[in-house]
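Figure-free illustration: sequence to structure, shown twice.
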Amino acid sequence: SAPVCINDLYPTITFIDIVKSLNINSYEYFLKDINNKLYRYLYNGELYEIKNDSAAQKPQYKGDLYGKTVIKQNGYLYIDSDGNLYGESGLDGLEDFYDTVPICINNREFSRTRSPRYNKGIINNPKVNKLNNSIITDLYNDKIIKDNNRNYWFFPDSGEVINISQKVSAEESPLYGKTIKDTIISGKYVIASDNKIYRIDLGKPVYIMDNLPDNIEFKDVQYKFDNDNMLYYVGLDINGKVWACGNGNFGQIGNGSLANTTTPICISDIAGTELANEYINNSSFKIENLYVKSNVYKNSYSIICLDSNGKVWSWGYNFDGQLGNGTTMYSSTPICITNIANTDFNNAYVNNNSKIKSILVNDINISYSNFVSIAALDSNGKIWTWGSNINGNLATGDKENKNSPICVSDLSTEIV
């Protein structure tokens, strides 16, 4: 329930970066040392060098990545210094085969089929590996990569890898004549050069972002799409205004309603709201960053924002108190939790000019239940936490959820 210094546990290793906290399991982290070696740190304090990741379980098989230099990593996918792509734990791009050691994806002539792994008949019906002899130059997430010919490739949940760039070049595609600017987390959705969202894992790309003004350009788009059809997106435009569309069942649209909407709404311009008043009263005001955990079930309907004044805004789902507004009730409109009177958060801002500089939204998956914890770093170098505390992850010395920000840096001389 208190922070642990990993460097103290492994004093002979100098760590320089946290590469990524895994979405699948929040208790595992990838760390990079001063020699550019990659490690996996487990919740129980164990540390494994990634090239020999499963040596404890399979000492006779260290994986294709053994001895290679990793230059980029995302989730369970890696690129080495030669432009080879590796995957593990079912994300090897070779169709439904689960391995706990890295497998080279682009340096083999044939890929596996979807047959069971122990069905020896698959050797009589191999599939040509579309990525064979490709040089991989970029890795966007565990779904989309780019090769040296500027082709974008997509790994669907099942079936063969898909060349998105070929689809875009087809005239019947709504992406025809456009380029892909960015991918949205799961990789099933992309933002094109027209600043609109397309789904690309179907038979052909589908335009899903209707009725958006042509002059809107997004700085960031976060979304939630799941099998229950409870879908929505929230976008931050280059002028620092927030747009939302889709399902509003937990108040995540931010327009004061729980109803669905098929037309994008600029919630920054809704008259009479606290957010709209900020834009009116301060011409330089804008939202700087969006924080949404889109891979978690209901908790992905919680939106946290940081504005240009270092203040925090939130709305949507609030079961664990992750909105930080002093309650566990949904909020259908954005609330500036920094402005809530008689709170430590507000007092620190007013009395000590304590402005939030960065925010981390962390999701915890335990037995198919999801919990969200928030951590924020202020301009005075102090840490604030709120939300779920089921494993003591808020570093408050207990395991009680907090529905208002707590400055853990002030709780004990042992927590700095």
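We now fold a second protein in the same way, so the two outputs can be compared directly.
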Amino acid sequence: MTERRCRAKKRIVNNELNCTASASADIEKNWLGSCVPLPPAREQYPVFRGIRGIRVVKNKQTTLASFRRRLHDGMSIMVGGFMGVGTPMELIAAVLDAGVKNLTLIAGDTGFPDRGAGPLIVHRRVRKVIASHIGGNPETGRQMAAGELEVEFSPQGTLVERIRSGGAGLGGVLTPTGLGTAVEEGKKCVRVDGRDYLLELPLRADLALLGACRGDKAGNLQYRLLARNLNPVMALAADTVFAEVDALVDVGRIDPDLVMTPAALVDGVVLKNFERE
């Protein structure tokens, strides 16, 4: 009996060692060089199959040419990121290449002349901007002062909640931010339990452009650090969503616990071209 227990214990220890070695082998360097553990092989994550064994995972990897066909004049576009971090620059360049104009831009800021959403302003493709601040783009201020560009400022927290309420199908958000300031002009004031609030209306867009550090071919996205600021909430508030990813992997190679935007919200994924940048 003692010998049998010893053999069983030895098998358990060997299995644990093998699992540890396998997990260590599944460590890869992510785009900034820090270690990110990969999940086990994708076969261990069940993928729903049709009644005749057909995989029902759609490959959403697309091309910039296919993306450009979705664009048209006068559309509203949400652009993720903050001061250029987490902004999909290749998708921005594709919008410029398509020649569309009279756009409504919804973003945290207008970036810089050559980064973030800034090139859209510099090339005069935008009719109206809804943002929390100009950013480091002097061209936005110049066009605004000259009456060439309509700009609607919204405090950043309020801007995020307006986008979130648009994605959730709500009628708006009540906030005390901006009471007694220029932000209050033209807005309805609502009194709740003896306190005044501004009614901020929801925001939605025809198209959202997101920037992620990693995505899979089904459209699941993972963001890193500051890039998580506006990208996830914008994915909920647009009719069509395209993402530009630094790394594109097979379905199942992103740990489900690390997915920040699920594939159901994403219509197309474009792999970033680092050589072009």
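Summary for the second example: Confidence is low (pLDDT under 50) at residues 16-46.
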